[in-house]
Amino acid sequence: MRSLLALIAIGFAAPLAAQYPQPLDNAAYADAQDNIYLRDEVTQVIVTMDPGDLQFLLDNRDTDVYADCTVRIINSQIDETYANVGIRPRGNTARDAKKNAWKLSFNEFVPGRTCHGLKKFNLGGDAPDPSISRSSTTFDFFRAMGVPAPRTHHVWLTINDGADVEGVFVNFEQVDEIFLKAWFGNNGGRLYKCRNKGTGANLTYRGTGLPSDYEALLDYEEENGGDFQLLADFIDFINNSASTAFATDIGEWLNTDGFLRAQAVDVISGQWDGLWIGANNYYLYENTDTGRLEYIPWDLDHSIGMDYLFFPIIGNFGTDFATKPYQGWGNRGFAMSGNEPPPLIERMLDIANYDSALKAYCREAAAGPFHPNNVFGRLDQLKTMLSPIAFTGAFSGSSMDNGYTNNSFNNSFTSPGSYSLFNTPATWGLKPFITKRREYVANNYPTPPASPQVFINEVMADNETTLADEAGEFDDWVEIYNDEDVPMDISGWYLSDDAGNPREWTFPAGTIVPAKGYVIVWCDNDPLQGPLHTTFKLTSDGEGVYLWLPDSFGHIQADSLLFPGLGNDESFGRFPDGTVAVETFTSATPEATNASGGFALRVTGNCPGELTFHAGGATPGGTVVFVGSIGGGSFPIPSGYPCAGSMLGLDSGSATIVGQVTADANGQASMVIDGQESYSGSVVLQALDVTSCNLSSAEEL
Q1: Are residues 101 and 222 in the same domain?
Q2: How many domains does one find in the chain?
Q3: Quick one: 466 and 351 in the same domain?
Q4: For 76, 140, 206, 535, which has the most beta carbons within 10 A of its beta carbon?
Q5: CA quadruple 646, 651, 655, 658: dihedral positive or negative?
Q6: 192 Cβ neighbours under 8 A, 6+ residues apart
Q7: What is the mean pLDDT of residues 66-75?
Q8: Which residues contact 325 (CB under 8 A, 6 or more apart)?
Q9: What pLDDT is recorded for position 647?
Q10: What mean pLDDT do residues 488-501 have?
Q11: Stretch 191-198: mean pLDDT, rounded?
Q12: Inter-CA distances, 28 with 25, 411, 640, Å
């Protein structure tokens, strides 16, 4: 049995408890997704401009004045030319690179114009990164963890004849009113761009704390034409509120759950150019629908093994971010003069529940979006796509920062294979860093206390005939499931359909979810109809539903379920109940065990790491056996065993029992194993209900 377990390799990701779903129902966002952010090809961006203007911009890279140019964009979806586009250098230290960054503004000289829903292209040179892939990969990590973050794609940029500027760049999305409207549903709030352009955007109290004190700094910029009063008030609260007031009220100032998710991605990916270490490259947006600030990451190429010998500032040079521990992760960076983290992070992590949430999100990120099984395929795609052109054109060897060549690019995905102090700035190859970092976090990062096992189990957003409420109306509904063996009192918990608004609707006193049982909540925006009728409705186009712990826990998310567009009487939920495996159901099961067409098997997790085998639809109280083999085939259960003669879809030469468990009262059976090794061959798993002799389908893992 153990020999088979050591070979199992799972190649798909378990869904995470997430924050914001990506807003593809927004027309402008979808337009850009379909025509600009094409991840499997390189878009050509051809800029034509006055040679004198180009030379001026190359000689004066600190300028923010746009020159006029014409831009042609060519990919598999479009071939379009835009006249009177603005072009200028962009970035902070990126302006000093040989391969400096550029900004294209489609509305600079033509007010209101967009290019498929975008006003700007931000063309990052990613000059320090030999793979030209770190920023795009790290942006992917943020979005996978439900943090609003820009999209990216790679372009081949040519300006004029290409003698001065021609090469691979990363185009990442502008954080502007279009981005804000897509993610948050509003864009009129104050938007603060936070950078380290002086003393750092570390959110420390400055001067007398007046708005003018922060407006005068280069580190903070208000992008939406608003004032600095909110930023001044927020910084005053962070630095000067009493401990009790801070713990009680920080969740009213900030989307704390989203902020902790963002910090977890920084910690896991070694991204040191955000608030925690660099006091740089992030936005704070005033979400006017919730009244809370949202944290948005920006410019992420200093990640996944980039060092520069800077850390720690005091003591021995160099830091191996692959083995950087949880405690003191951000100490001795640029954000603060001493050994402490910025005050917002320090004060939040002094609160046990927020510290536990960050630990949980670090482990989720490492086991999910950061796991090699979920990253390496994309890295292979990027390498194949970019290898013919990386560090060719105007940027290679002596004309490129760090002397990078095409060979540097090809090696960067696997080399260095271990921490190399003097291979700066990329002290790790991408794949070795990710492999080592995941392993280190799994074996060394603290495990947070267990959270209550209460879940959003099933959602119906277009209820036509399935279930009527007390008034005989067919309204949207959410099913809450308690996977504990004892009843759970969720009085004072919260439910919302907005990740930034954790206090949208409160479960009334006396709300008890039975052990292994269910409660239906009606999402009809009609709270006068009954105690379990919310103040919001769901949309059948797809969105998120969020379950929050009570006030005593702070603004901590207990669970969430992001669901796609659903048709009449379709539901979406977890199968088996309370697991991370999800699917759409054509036959809903409110207040009953979710069904997926009879007895079925689901596997979640990644190997190496924790794997869970789930069987649903079994005989309640009966025995479920998990059987596996290397490769599929036809293997009859031999005589002398239960269900003899049943034909398994397994290879007869290697079939073995992986384990057996007893199904609960809902007909669910789960088993957790620690998958230690991966195997390149085909591993097949099947479940058997011994009581009924029902077989699940054979699943190739």
Answers
A1: no
A2: 4
A3: no
A4: 140
A5: negative
A6: 220, 221, 222, 223, 228, 231, 283, 284, 285
A7: 98
A8: 444, 445
A9: 95
A10: 96
A11: 94
A12: 9, 38, 64
**Whole-number percent of the chain with pLDDT over 90:** 86
Structure tokens at 566: 């659903």
Whether the Cβ atoms of residue 606 and residue 10 lie closer than 8 Å to each other: yes
Rounded-to-integer distance, Cα 112 and Cα 134, Å: 32
Q: Is 8's pLDDT higher than 60?
A: no
The pLDDT of residue 6? 36
| Domain boundary, last residue among 120, 155, 178 | 178
Both tokens assigned to 618: 């079994």
Which residue from 101, 131, 139 is spatially nearest to 386, judged by alpha carbons? 131
Tokens of 230: 């909110």
**pLDDT value at position 562?**
94
Q: What is the DSSP string of 215-250?
A: HTSTTEEESSS--SHHHHHHHHHHHHS-HHHHHHHH
From CA 202, how far away is CA 337, in angstroms rounded?
11
Measured in whole angstroms, the distance separating CA 65 from the mean position of its chain's CA atoms is 35
Residue type, 153: H
Q: Which tens digit of pLDDT belongs to each residue from 562-602?
A: 999 999 999 999 999 999 999 999 999 999 999 888 899 99
CATH number at residue 467: 2.60.40
Residue 284 and residue 253: Cα distance in Å, rounded?
A: 11
Asked whether the whole model's pTM tops 0.90, one would answer yes
Residues 274, 280: contact at Cβ < 8 Å?
A: yes
Does residue 559 sit in the same domain as residue 605? no
- Residue 252, H or E segment: helix 243-253
Residue 25: per-residue pLDDT: 79
Domain span at residue 251 reads 184-367
Distance CA(694)–CA(600), nearest Å, equals 9
Residue with tokens 């083995």: 323
Structure tokens at 112: 């209101």
Cis before residue 642, ω within 30 degrees of 0? no
Closest to 655 (Cα-Cα) out of 637, 671, 669: 637
Burial 398-434 (b: 16+ CB within 10 A, else e): eebbeebbbebbbebbebbeebbeeebbbbbbbbbbb
pLDDT for the residue 319: 86
Select from 311, 340, 367 the last residue of a domain.
367
What are 465's two structure tokens?
Answer: 């005939």
Residue at token pair 């021995």: 316
Contact call for residues 433 and 417 (beta carbons, < 8 A) = no
SS3 per residue for 32-50:
HHHHCCCCCCCEEEEEEEC
Whether residue 537 is predicted with pLDDT greater than 60 in this model: the reply is yes
What digits encode the pLDDT tens for the residues 21-64? 888 779 999 999 999 999 999 999 999 999 999 999 999 999 99
